[in-house]
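Treating backbone geometry as a discrete language has practical consequences that deserve illustration. The amino acid sequence and the backbone structure tokens for this protein are reproduced below.
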Amino acid sequence: MLIPKRFVYDFAATRADEHARRVLEGWQGKLICDYYSGYKASFGQGITEIGCMTHARRKFFELHETNKSTLAAAALEKIVRLYEIERQAKTLDADQRYTLWQQNSKPIADALHTWLIANRQKKPEGTATAKAIDYSLKRWSALTRYLDDGAVPIDNNQVENQIRPWALGRSNWLFAGSLRSGQRAAAVISLIQSAKLNGHDPYAYLRDVLARLPTHRVRAINKLLPHNWQPETADKV
């Protein structure tokens, strides 16, 4: 069975944990995410946590930028090796990626884990270096869970890239007008990004769907979703 390709955006008035729980309620699967506390309640209830290596890498990058830390530079070099293998896996199917990760990535990850533990023991509690190392060590199982599943990526960069345009404009769009208008904006953005994901021109998709909606049967509305949509005529594409 093919899994539909779609992006779903949600709008909430605050970053309270309850909003993440509401969105994820009833869903089961593998969630690639950072350490936002709103996700924690869902883990173990049919949702498996997959850590994002980019977030772990960012801690060492920030440490190196701030303090020119040689330890941070060494950690970054080791993480880069994992990403080099990730790039090799882009054209492979899930089974091939799993084999590649088990043979090449897992030994690097195991060595990195041992190295982090050894260096953490040398750093005083509360220092910037200790905090950067702790971020990875406390989430190590989640960060390396991708190694056991060829269908799972090393990070959630693809999702973050879809969010970035709205994050960059956040200061200009600080006020949506109302909760309802924010929710409508999230729905429209979901359709636009899902159309792109399925290889459609968003303008052609929306134009066609809006033209058909007034006479389209409600019970067949799923046919107009981006992953099911087919243009009514060639002229409308």
Remarks:
- Residues 53-148 form one domain.
